[in-house]
Amino acid sequence: MNKKVLILCTGNSCRSIIAEALINAELEGIDAESSGVKASGKVNPNAQKLLEQKGIWRDEYHSKTLDTVINNEYDLVVTVCDHAHETCPMFPKPVKTIHIGFEDPDGKGFEAFEETYKEIKNELLPQVKKELT
Predict the structure, then answer these.
(1) N or C: which terminal CB in the chain sees fewer CB atoms within 10 Å?
(2) Residues 95-132: pLDDT tens digits?
(3) Residue 92, Cα to own-chain centre: how many angstroms?
């Protein structure tokens, strides 16, 4: 049975979506979902474009609010922005939570999204793998 990880951010439009897609594409035996503490309700177009270029975009990726996932069971919760880290909710069942922060590329050029993608791939993926295997 696959391990489950939740990537938690503020807006759930860039960093958490990129992390969700990368984990699902590259970490065997681990399923990722993402959510926002205050979800924006939309995926940033640059984040979607980048994931499409990398061949790991799925139509099911969308900006979700925390209440849609709070009762799901996870083996790990990862906060990827300081605001989500500071306001990380209590889950109904105990779950290990770690924080790996990334600068928000929202409002910046496409290169910032490429940089965030590389940082998430190089920093977050090995940490998630270490925590769950």
Answers:
(1) N
(2) 999 999 999 999 999 999 999 999 999 999 999 999 99
(3) 20
Tokens read off for 69? 């996932």
Contact (CB, 8 A) for 79 and 97 = yes
**How confident is residue 84, by pLDDT bands cut at 50, 70 and 90?**
confident
Q: How many domains does the chain have?
A: 1
Task: Kindly report, residue by residue over 26-66, the tens digit of the pLDDT.
Answer: 999 999 999 998 889 999 999 999 999 999 999 999 999 98
Instruction: Residue 117: give the domain boundaries.
Output: 3-132
Output the CA–CA distances (angstroms, integers) from residue 57 to 5, 33, 69, 110, in the order listed: 18, 13, 20, 16
What amino acid positions are annotated as catalytic residues?
9, 81, 88
Q: Domain containing 14 — which CATH number?
A: 3.40.50.2300
Q: What does the pLDDT read at residue 60?
A: 95
Instruction: Say if CB 3 and CB 102 are below 8 A apart.
Output: no
User: Can you state the percent helix, strand and coil of the chain, rounding each to 5?
Assistant: 40, 15, 45
